[in-house]
Write a structure and sequence with these properties.
The chain contains 14 helices and three strands. The chain is mainly α and 338 residues long. Its main location: membrane.
Length: 338
């Protein structure tokens, strides 16, 4: 499902205003998540200020702002280009962390990865040949990547007591509210502009249920089975899957600029993730050892502690599992990986 969501966005944009479309997606996702909370008996009510701050940060930045810019940007570019530009998010995260977190240190490989990744985004944007159309879309998508990276960094400040499934439910409700608020004040996002048809309804259902809810459950099952270092490789697969679906379903071309841009962004990502990737390579070359209580890995710009008791207790949908090593916070949000 990772990557195929960009094709669903492209289909839905033919009938739905972009931001209102995103709002409908998270209306559907929030309803399903609240149903999962009730069915599982998980605690729904936030208990601490950090829980509330985490819900607001995730809902406003990781869902509201991020997806508003994503859906607006994809109006101008292909689904493959959108996926490639969004893969810049984990590369820009260390630079944002340096400004937002006083204790954070940026390594030389982070700086080099940021530079190489930015060149990759520029290569894709330059292929548009003008300041309209494609370049505008790339700029909006770049903003979406930055919003996601900023939200990911800010969540490190908060200690979470709320189960993850409940956090997702509240965050998607807040995000949907932000998106609806924007659509209410923008004339091009009026409900009267919606063309209700089978394609629009299918796109909303697929994105809301399969990508947002299914992506969440599958991603945390993947974390439980293989660990964050291996799961981070999903970031490589998403643009490739998006390009494949776009070409097969929509007939979108795969250009040399897209291949070059993705290659540079992938190199930048590898430079930023060089330590967990090196641990992964070493693990493939020898027996897999159990992580120590103090070992950390970085996934999509966030650091996670691999504590032995936590791994044993991990259950998908219960809110237990891998937690950030710096005072809690949200796990990387799988809803951003369409």
């Amino acid at each position: 499902m990772w990557g195929s969501g960009f094709t669903a966005i492209e289909i839905g944009l033919e009938s739905l205003p972009p931001v209102l479309f995103a709002a409908f997606r998270f209306d559907a996702a929030a309803l399903v998540f609240f149903a999962l909370v009730v069915a599982s008996g998980a605690r729904l009510r936030p208990r601490t200020r950090d829980d509330v701050r985490l819900i607001l940060t995730t809902g406003v930045l990781l869902i509201g702002v991020h997806f508003a810019l994503l859906f607006l940007g994809q109006n101008y570019v292909s689904s493959a280009v959108a996926a490639i530009v969004l893969s810049f998010a984990p590369i820009v995260t260390p630079a944002i962390a340096l400004a937002a977190l006083p204790s954070h240190r940026v390594r030389a490989t982070d700086a080099l990865g940021l530079l190489v990744g930015f060149v990759g985004v520029a290569a894709i944007a330059a292929a548009g040949g003008s300041f309209g159309g494609r370049l505008a879309g790339v700029a909006l998508l770049f903003g979406a990547a930055v919003a996601f990276a900023l939200g990911s960094v800010l969540t490190r400040r908060f200690s979470r007591t709320l189960p993850l499934v409940s956090l997702q439910a509240w965050s998607m409700l807040v995000g949907a509210g932000i998106l609806h608020a924007f659509s209410l004040v923008h004339p091009t996002e009026a409900l009267s502009r919606v063309d209700w048809n089978g394609g629009a309804l299918a796109a909303i259902a697929y994105l809301g249920i399969v990508c947002s809810v299914g992506g969440f459950l599958l991603y945390f099952r993947l974390l439980e089975r293989v660990g964050p270092a291996d799961a981070s490789l999903v970031s490589y697969a998403t643009p490739i899957v998006a390009a494949g679906f776009g070409a097969a379903v929509l007939g979108e071309p795969i250009t040399s600029a897209m291949v070059l841009g993705f290659g540079l962004i992938a190199v930048g990502f590898a430079l930023c993730q060089i330590r967990p990737l090196w641990r992964l390579v070493r693990g493939l070359r020898g027996p897999r050892r159990r992580p120590s209580a103090t070992e950390t890995v970085r996934v999509r710009g966030n650091e996670y502690a691999l504590e032995e008791p936590t791994v044993e207790r991990a259950r998908v949908g219960t809110g237990e599992g891998y937690g950030p090593s710096r005072g809690g916070g949200a796990a990387p949000d799988p809803v951003a990986d369409d």
